[in-house]
Amino acid sequence: MFDLRRLRVLQVLAEHGTVTATAAALHLTPSAVSQQLRQLARDLDVELLRADGRRVRLTPVARVLLAHADTLATQWEQARAELAAHRHEPVAGTLRICAVSSAIAALGAPAAVELRRTHPRLRVLLREEESGDCFALLRDDEADLAVVLPTPDTPPVADPRFDQHPLLDDPQDLLVRRGHRLDRPEGVALAEAAGEPWIVKPHHNDTHPLLTAACAAAGFTPRIEHQAKEWFAVSALVAAGCGVCLLPRIVPVPAEHPVVRVPLHGNPRPSRRFVACVRRGAAEHPVLAAGLAALAATHQHGSDTVPPRS
């Protein structure tokens, strides 16, 4: 027998290339990483690493083991799920949910309320992170369920480590100051905002590539003049007449801001897709099944509650 957590250390080493980088990714010391790898080699009675100057390299046997790693992890998650389901007890324990900020507000918090009502013995912990970090938390068993926005930098749907469940399509509206030339109840085409200064979230946020891709499809490059991390600040800048922005339909704006949410029509009509993710094989665990059901119920109940105009 061997500890699957040690196998995870080997996987991270294969991804990052050095013991130091592996230690940083796993929040361990380099000596702890080396110890875990030595113990894994002893457990399996094989040589996993060889010295290569000041670095280490994986042996052919290590490559063979890594080829089975995702399958082993999935089978373990499935076993845990089936064992938990056979207890025939009320859903209890802890559910760790990580999500992007807009999903925390619109989906995660309402789902936590629903879970407290339906499963009072279940403790729900919420954590805000960017999509890529959410996948890392799932991978490292620091979270159980993630609500993310897939980007070119996140794992694809076919990634064998995760099960990804489409949850909600979130259209983008144009947010403008009240009385702006594009303040039209019937909506506008994105190309009509080509000459406007734009306000965006920073580059590492999913909204930045969405804006640039949508504008490129509309035939222009946005003139980005301001960046802000929080939607409150973005809305405040729009209210001050500093520019316009794309605002996710799921995100509310402060009532005191003199801004208007203008629907976009024609092509392109940019939209984000929220996806609920778990480690592959874990979805049938009673705790995770309850979490996924609560998110789906929250989406179905609230999907039409956000008006197209603010």
Automatic annotation (TrEMBL):
<dbReference type="InterPro" id="IPR005119">
    <property type="entry name" value="LysR_subst-bd"/>
</dbReference>
<keyword id="KW-0238">DNA-binding</keyword>
<dbReference type="InterPro" id="IPR036390">
    <property type="entry name" value="WH_DNA-bd_sf"/>
</dbReference>
<dbReference type="GO" id="GO:0003677">
    <property type="term" value="F:DNA binding"/>
</dbReference>
<comment type="similarity">
    <text>Belongs to the LysR transcriptional regulatory family.</text>
</comment>
<feature type="domain" description="HTH lysR-type">
    <location>
        <begin position="2"/>
        <end position="59"/>
    </location>
</feature>
<keyword id="KW-0804">Transcription</keyword>
<protein>
    <submittedName>
        <fullName>DNA-binding transcriptional regulator, LysR family</fullName>
    </submittedName>
</protein>
<dbReference type="InterPro" id="IPR036388">
    <property type="entry name" value="WH-like_DNA-bd_sf"/>
</dbReference>
<dbReference type="GO" id="GO:0032993">
    <property type="term" value="C:protein-DNA complex"/>
</dbReference>
<dbReference type="InterPro" id="IPR011991">
    <property type="entry name" value="ArsR-like_HTH"/>
</dbReference>
<keyword id="KW-0805">Transcription regulation</keyword>
<dbReference type="Pfam" id="PF03466">
    <property type="entry name" value="LysR_substrate"/>
</dbReference>
<dbReference type="GO" id="GO:0003700">
    <property type="term" value="F:DNA-binding transcription factor activity"/>
</dbReference>
<dbReference type="Pfam" id="PF00126">
    <property type="entry name" value="HTH_1"/>
</dbReference>
<dbReference type="InterPro" id="IPR000847">
    <property type="entry name" value="LysR_HTH_N"/>
</dbReference>
